[in-house]
Structure formats: C-alpha cells, structure tokens
What we know:
Blueprint: E1 14-19, E2 22-28, E3 30-32, E4 38-40, E5 50-56, H1 63-71, H2 91-95
Antiparallel strand pairs: 1-2, 2-5, 3-4
Amino acid sequence: MIGIYDPPSLKISQYFLSLPHGFVQLLKNKALNSTNQVSYLIPELKSMDYFLLVQDETFQISINTFANQLAKNRYIQNVMKLDVSKLKSKENLLTY
C-alpha cells in the first residue's frame, strides 16, 4: 500500500480561531525542522516572528483599523499588511 499523505517537515506553532464568517490564525514564522535546524514558514521574511491571518467574509472589519489597533499594543513591535499573493513561499501558508 502506498501512502499519499505527506505531512509537513516543519512543525509551526499556531493558534486558530474559527468564526461564523471567517477565521483568525496566528502562525509562528521560526521553527525547528525534522533535523532540528532552524527553518522559516516564510523564509523571505525572516525578520518577522509571527503572522496573523485574518479572513472576514462579511467585510465588516476594516483591515487598516484592525492593524492600527494592533500597533497600539505595547507588546507588539511592528504591524505590517502583506500582500500574500506576492510572497514567494505563499503555499506554506496554505499548509497550516
């Protein structure tokens, strides 16, 4: 029997909150791979520690307002909006 399932070789710490019309997902960028070496979920953005993915199918959340509110939190150093379609390794975000 041949198994088609191939689990990701990188275990990413994450938090997922399912909402009635979308989700919020927090992903850690830096992790150890199966050989205990440092790897990145999004290697082209190594300076980023976490990614917060927000999907709102109701379009009631203003992303700019949401980002501005996050930036006011003293425990958050930097907030950036990213165009996921422009990332080289955007497929990695679909894996988790």
